[in-house]
Design brief:
Big-1 domain-containing protein; five-stranded antiparallel β-sheet; Invasin/intimin_cell_adhesion; Big_1_dom; 21 strands; mainly beta; Immunoglobulin-like
Amino acid sequence: MKLLNSIRFTFILILCATLTSCDDDDPIVCNAIAVHDGNDQLGMPGQAMTSPLQVKVTDPSGNPVSNAQVSWEVVEGGGTLSTNTTSTNAQGIAEVNWVYGQENGKVRATVNNHGDCTANSVDFAASAPQLSLSQTGSSVVPKRLRSNGSCYEYDYIIKYSSNIDLSQYYIDVKGEFQYASETETTSYFKQGILDAANNTISYMDCFTFEDEAYVDDWFTVALYKKSDVQDGKIVTGAVPVIISNKMGPIRTAKPDGAPRFDTGNSGPRVAQRGN
């Protein structure tokens, strides 16, 4: 009997040594991951985020874990990451740089735990730039007859909303107009003047009505990097950071007493528009 008990005890010891779990001396540790910094940024297409994406990895007691492997992937919106795998530093922090795509984006970071642990991931979101023009609050205001009598001056005031700072960009306004008797629009371009306090973009234009009763205007705004503008002109091949919606029409009636300019039947109805 003593011999049999001795054999059983030896078998249990061998089994415990093999499984390394009888006394729970070597438990499986499942680390946690959390967003540390860089979430909810504004992403400019083709540009790196202002701040890197950072996560913090901790053990079950909340202590930082160094040398933990973190995997990164873009799951929405496109773009590229500086790397797909990083290791945490002594503070348990790992980071990656994200070059934004073209749409609202999402990046997922996953801590590479033991196989028996539930996958532990966090997501970073970023929003695309937005620029919207509103007909409400926009206006075309008659000012005066130009001193040389060539045309009538108007101030154009365009109301906008945006989640970016327009002062950092060159504001290019595309105007389209169509007189009462016309069936197609004519386009021109102007540099917009920003009034950030009132969320408006303005410019001055000068034109004549001739015998027309009114003119309709539509507007679209494109933002360019200032480095894409030389001598007041957008360089060939430059791509706008963002283009707004097309807003309009805003109808401007011929003002009472507006002068009539004799441009001739074959001459242009609009004099120096866009200047």
